[in-house]
Each structure stands twice: as structure tokens, then as C-alpha cells.
Amino acid sequence: MCLCLFYTLSHSQDVPESFKRISDSLIQAKPTTYQQIDSVLRFKRSDTLYMHYFNRASANSEYYDGQAYALNQLGRKYRNISQFQKAIAFHKLALQAAEAANNLEFRIYSLNMLGVIYRKSDAIKIALDYHQEALDLANTEKNPSNGIKRSINVSLNSIGNLYQTLRQYDIAIAQYEKSMTLEKELGNKLGLAINYQNIGECLEHKGQLEEALEYYRISLDYNNEINSHKGLIICKNSIAQVYIKQNKVKEALEILEPNLLAAEEIGDMYIVTSINLNIGWALIELEQYQDAEKYLTQGLKLANTHHLPSFISEAYSLLSQLATHKENYKNALLYYQKAESLNVAINSEVNRKYIYDLIIKYETEKQNNKIASLANEYNMVNTKLKRNKNMLFIGALGMALLTFLLYILYRQKELKNEKKILTLEQSMLRSQMNPHFLFNSLNSIKLYIINNDKKNAVHYLNKFSKLVRKILEASSVKEISLFDELETIELYMNIENIRFSNEINFTIIIDDPIDPHNVKIPSLILQPFLENALWHGLSTKEGEKNIELRVSRENGNYIQIAITDNGVGRTASERIKKNKVLKRKSVGIDITKERLANFSKDFEHSFQVEIKDLYSPEKEPLGTQVILHIPTS
């Protein structure tokens, strides 16, 4: 901060008196929103001399809102010329000023700007943390201003960029479309241009080149409309890149060569690097190898100078292709190995973990949206029924009125049952996706990573991701095969067993002639009973810990599933539970019983659940047995 103030002091004499007067009037008025300050200073916000002066003047008057604005503009300026370390320093100072001013809008803005820089440097984890923090802060505001709404769009767009970096293109497109909807509400054409550009990039990576071109051209139109010089350069570079992939190399070069000069004029080395590499690529395709090497070498030099790992990897990959064409296979292999080494670094273990976390979050959000959609549909049907009911009071007479009233009552009963089913399914999904279970499971896997036990870490991480996927898949259907249910349970027990230091001996026995593929049961019904056995029966037991799950044919009408543990028994468990400060409340079993009751409505026979306490001949507790009688007819 001191260095920043010293710089502005030494150059304050170069600032015109007219700007000083504007600065003084702003500081005296003390506006608190980005839009209010920007409406006055927008014409000078890209000039570092003016922003340094305004920063110092605001600091001297303890006008921290103005200081946050000026420091963020300085950060943006240095980011746009790829001086990322300077940009980071200014944005961090801006964040401090925003916190001193207790200004939520500028805090969110500063966090987003930091996230953008780290994303451009392929520091995915840090970038995601900053954008997520910005989004969480924005969501605390019940009535967000337009400035905060714009910041929400930046967060959504940037999180989409991170999905794109991790090659999760469909999820990235969903984020961009969500951001685009909000940008349309705000009438922000720059935001729309950026989102159309980003969706085009995702489609290009998916190989949908014509669709990508369509989105790039829409973005180009928006950038023309708002006269965004930088946006036009980015769009033209993307269109040329698609042309190269479509073997329209000459058309691509006609765009790229003047576009490089335009990019160099604005000084954005990120774009300049990309265009150099694309020109080099195009010249390889035209077999102009000497010129191609010149542009690729320049692109590599810029990428190294400005620390752009993705472009360094791309440059080495293209240089490998060039060396192959020149039959210099030694250099081709060397460049290829360097490119692959960088790709491994970019897609590190930390980033792979983020892929799993992001996908789980996205799938959970999608499931919640589905539930919300069903609830809206229910409300619409209910509203329609009420409207029909009012009309019937006016126009219906006699038997017609009575018949229709009976129909309404029947429909309301059905809707009530459907709502109950939806509530049960939602409760079960939340029970299965318990945050404590997810957190503790990931922590257990983290210990393997910390202990450098890569084999077990990968082994259990694969099991964990498969378990989450199976839970989400099963939650969308009414019933599944017993085989799928047992497979899910086995994954669940494997994950939970990590926390018991693999002391639990879990076995599944299926008696002949039962074929688990042909037996249908409600999805996700066994886990609550196993969880109960683990945490109330075995968690406090000393010595050998066993759980046995046996499936047998009771008779022609029932399948019997018996879950037996050798735990402390229900009496001892209740006694231990009363002495605990933190009590686990098990609601999963009650939900499961309700779901079984609903499932058995379609059968002639109803379900039964028995819980038995097991004792030795000397009346010593030997554990607990839960028996589920599942109807098959």
C-alpha cells in the first residue's frame, strides 16, 4: 500500500486540475456503489495515472469505497496486459479497502476479479474458492442491487469457465445459460457477448464446429453493437481457429494476421499469445514450416513470460507436430513429453478432486431442481383444480355437481399421495446424501492422500464416486433390482468401513434359488438399517465386529432380508445414547417404513419389519437382528 501511495504522490503533479476537482467532488459526495462512481470516472478508469491519484486522495480522506474502486481498476488494467502478479496485489488491496468500508458490493467484485486472474493462470482450486466465496456473499443479500446481480453473473460465468477448463463442457454450458438468463434481465450486452463466446468454445471442444461458429457470430454481433474492441479480437480469433479445424486455412490466416496487430495494440498478451499459436498452426497446415516455427516460438516465449500454462502446453504440442513434419523425431518426442508433463500438472490430483466435488454438487443441484419442478407442477394442478371448483359452484347442478365434487376429492387424494411420495423420496435422498457422511468419507480418503497411500486413495475415491452416482440414479426411480440395491450397500459399507479402520466384517449371503436380478424392491431401503447397526450396535463394541445380510425365500409370497450384527444390543445402546452429549437421531428407518408401506400397496400382501434382540443361553446380549419381509405378490 505504501509503495502504491508513494507512486501516486510522485506523479500527482501530472494530473490535470480538472480531474482533481472531479475527484474532490466525488470524495465529498461519497457514493457507495460501483455504478455511481463508474458513471463519473469511467472515461479515465483505464489510465493508471488517474486511478493512482484517486486511490491516494480517497485513502487520505478515508473514503474506502472510492479506494476499492480505484485499486480494482488498476488490477484490471494490469490483468489486461497480462501482468498478473501486479494485478493480484491491487485486487487484494481493493478487497482490504472494501472490508474497511464494509461494502458488500465491492467485496464481491474484488473476490471475482481475483478469481478471474487465477483462472487465467490455470490455478483452478484458488480461482474456484474466490468465485464461490463471492457467490456465497452475494446470496446473503435478500434484495441485491444491480451491481451485485452483475457480480453474481461474473461468478456464474467464471465457474462455468472452470468447468470448461476441467473439460466438463455440458455442465459449463448449463452455468453459462444460467448467467445468460440473468444478463438478459439486466440488459447487459457485454455479458451476453461473453456467454455466447464461452458456449461457442465448449461446443468447439465437443467437435460441434458449425454450432460453435453460430455462437461465435452472435457474440461478434453483440461486440460490434457495443463497440468492444477486445471482444471483437477474441471472437475473430475463435472463428479463425474453427476454420483451421475445417481445413479453411487460408480464410483463417486472412482473419488472424490483421487480428494479431489489433491484439498487440491493446496490449493483452493472453490474446496475443493465442493468435501467435493459431497462426503457427495454420502455417503448419500450409507446409510453411519456417514461418510456422517463428510464430510458435514467439507464442511459447510469451506464454512463458506471462505464466500461461495451457498455452505453454499447446505451444509444445504444436512444435512437436512441426518437428514431426520436418522428420526431426528426437525434437518431436521432446516437445511432446513437455506438453504431456504440463497437462499432468494442470490436471493435478487436486484438480481431479475438484472435478468430483463439482460434479456431485451439480448433480445434487439438478436433483433439487427436479424436485422443485415437481412441486411447481403440483401447485399448478392444485390451482387449476381450485379454479375448476369455483366454476362448478356457478354452473353445475344436481348429479353433475355431485359427480364432479367426488372427482375433485378423488384427485385431491391422489395428489396428496403423490406429494407424500415426493416428500418421502426427497427425505430419503437427503438421508442418503447426508452432509456428515459425505464430509467424513472425503476426510477419510484425504488421510490416504496425506499418508501418500495413492493406491487406497484412488481405490476408495472410485468407490465413493460410484456410490454417489448410484444413489442419485436410484433416487429417480420407484423400484430397483435387489442386485443393484446390494451393490449400492456394499459400496456404502466399504466407505463406512474406512472410519472403523476396516474392522467390520460384512458379508452378503443369497440363498438358492433366488435371482437378485429378478427381485424388485424400493430403491435405497437397506442403508438406514445398516447405518443403525454400525453406529448403535458396533461403534462402541470391543473385539470382533460382524454384520451379515442374508436374503432367503420365506414362501411363495415373501422374500426375507435379515440383517444381523453382533453389537452391544438395543438395551446397552440406549443406555450409551442417554449418556452422550451429541445424540444421533435416526430418521432413516421411519422414512423407510413409510416407503415400504407405500410400495406394498400394489401387492396383495403387506410388508413387515421385525427387530429381534439376540441373547446367549446365559442371557448375555449377542447383538440385534432386523428382518424385512418384502412382498412379491
Describe the structure.
This protein has helices at 2-11, 17-29, 34-41, 48-60, 64-80, 84-101, 104-120, 124-138, 146-165, 169-186, 189-205, 209-226, 229-245, 249-266, 269-285, 289-305, 309-325, 329-346, 349-395, 398-432, 435-450, 454-474, 482-499, 527-538, 570-579, 588-599; strands spanning 479-481, 504-510, 520-522, 545-553, 558-565, 608-615, 621-631. By secondary structure, it is α+β, with helices and mostly antiparallel strands. Among the domains are: 348-476; 478-631, Histidine kinase-like ATPase, C-terminal domain (Heat Shock Protein 90, 2-Layer Sandwich), CATH 3.30.565. The strands form 2 sheets. It has a 5-stranded mixed beta sheet with strand order 2-4-5-7-6, covered by helices on one side. A two-stranded antiparallel sheet has the order 1-3. A hairpin with a 4-residue loop joins β4 (545-553) and β5 (558-565). α11 (189-205) runs antiparallel to α12, α11 packs parallel to α13 and α14 (249-266) runs antiparallel to α15 (269-285). The longest helix has 47 residues, at 349-395. The protein is globular, with a radius of gyration of 32 Å. Residues 1-10, 428-433 and 581-585 have low confidence and may be disordered.
Short description:
By secondary structure, the chain is α+β, with helices and mostly antiparallel strands. 73% of the residues lie in helices and 8% in strands. The strands form 2 sheets. The protein has a 5-stranded mixed beta sheet with strand order 2-4-5-7-6, covered by helices on one side. It has a two-stranded antiparallel ribbon with strand order 1-3.
